[in-house]
Amino acid sequence: MSAPTLTKKQIQQTIRKGNSRPVVKTALSSPYNIQWPTVQEDVQEEILQRLLSTLKSLDIARPKSRKKKKKNKTEETEKDTAMPVAIETLRNRKQLLFGVNQVTRGLEKDEVRLVISCRSAQPVIITRHLIGLAALRKCPAICVSSLNKSVSKVMNMTSAVAIGFKRSIKCPKHRFISISDISYKIIRN
Question: How far apart are CA 141 and CA 129, in angstroms?
Answer without folding.
Answer: 11
